[in-house]
Amino acid sequence: MATVNLTTGEKLEGIDDVWQSIAIILGTTLGSLVMARDFGSKMPRLVDRAVSQVTVIEFYAAVPEAINRINPEALMAEEPRFRIIQMALSDMTDEGNATFDIDGIYYPRGHLGDYSEARDAQGRVVVSNNVIVGSYI
Predict the structure, then answer these.
(1) What does each of the 137 residues of the chain score in pLDDT, given as a tens digit?
(2) Per-residue three-class SS string for 33-86
(3) Which of 6, 17, 34, 73 is buried most deeply by CB count within 10 Å?
(4) Within 13 Å and on the Cβ side, how many CA atoms surround 108?
(5) Are the CB atoms for 74 and 66 separated by under 8 Å?
(6) Structural domain of 113
(7) What is the CATH number of the domain that holds 16?
(8) Domains in the chain: how many in total?
(9) Does 88 reside within a domain?
């Protein structure tokens, strides 16, 4: 499966494509797409909140909920090629910028329903200036 890099226009494959997909899922407000109301996450509604322990907990809940959500109509996960195993807050500033490090399992053919091949994967979700970015590390 290959897509187009949203910033460069070049072909994007593999784990890099997964992280771009994760960034799109997390950056889309849940309920904002007319024909796919269950696509997206609660994160865009959280980025303007004051930094508090409650906000951090809501971020912790929003990321796996969005990425690993099962869509009952399509019978598949939002991002079937990645499953979160562990997530940790690695940086948080008073301005509301946050960095979450994510450990998970990457399934190269997960979008086809084939989970026979699995690889460890690490990534990072950065919330900065009300923009959500996912990247592979």
Answers:
(1) 678 888 888 898 888 888 888 888 888 888 887 877 778 888 888 777 777 788 888 888 888 888 887 665 554 568 888 988 998 888 877 776 778 899 999 999 988 889 899 999 988 888 776 666 666 65
(2) CCCCCCCCECHHHHCCCCCCHHHHHHHHHHHHHHHCCEECCCCEECCCCEEEEE
(3) 17
(4) 6
(5) no
(6) 11-136
(7) 3.10.450.40
(8) 1
(9) yes
